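Below is how a single chain appears once it has passed through the pipeline. First comes the sequence as given, then the structure the pipeline wrote out for it. We keep one example in the README because the format questions we get most often are answered faster by looking than by reading.
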Amino acid sequence: MKLIDYIQQNGIKQNWLARQADLTPSRLNVIAKGRIDPRLDEIRKIEKATGGKVTAADFMEKDGE
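Resulting structure:
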């Protein structure tokens, strides 16, 4: 599941998720929008914060693939 989809489908605030993942809200925002690729440590934090709903594989998928 894409990070932005997880946020929208679960009705959570990016600021809250950023705190759970130990990331700054601005960093999480640019990752969620696909403007930058997250580092491996950030992927692990996001995976943990989302309870495994967003995984490393989800960041490897590009639109249309």
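The radius of gyration is 10 Å.

See the next section for the split statistics.
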